[in-house]
Amino acid sequence: MSRARQSMYPAPPSASHWTALEQCSYALQSSCVNVHEAVEVLHEATVDLPRLASIVQSRRMFDLVTEPDVFSAQRALANEMSPQIEELIGRAEDGLEGLKQRERALRAKDPFLLASR
């Protein structure tokens, strides 16, 4: 028959060993609680991060346009729109002149018509 294997510990663990092991267990449990609380704080601080990242990205997009580029775009837009605006102003002036001629014709037709109002 074979002999029983000899233990590497010469004697059973002492009471102080169990106390030290229990204190280590409590310290580990306390560390786990601290880590859990830190994770919760980190989550609360970063839960809005995707929205903030999109805001910052949008802000960067506007920061990429320089002031001279903005002025150049304004001038180009003004040059593009000015003929249309001038045409509309001319049409409005022509319409106003037509209304003035109509008013003169009506006054000539019956001078008392507009004076009674």
Automatic annotation (TrEMBL):
Pfam families: DASH_Spc19. GO terms for biological process: attachment of spindle microtubules to kinetochore. Keywords: Centromere, Chromosome, Cytoplasm, Cytoskeleton, Kinetochore, Nucleus. The keyword Protein biosynthesis does not apply. InterPro entries: DASH_Spc19 (IPR013251). One of its GO terms (cellular component) is DASH complex. Its main location: nucleus. It is found in: Chromosome, Centromere, Kinetochore; Cytoplasm, Cytoskeleton, Spindle; Nucleus. Belongs to the DASH complex SPC19 family. This is DASH complex subunit SPC19. It comes from Rhodotorula diobovata. The lineage of its organism: Eukaryota, Fungi, Dikarya, Basidiomycota, Pucciniomycotina.
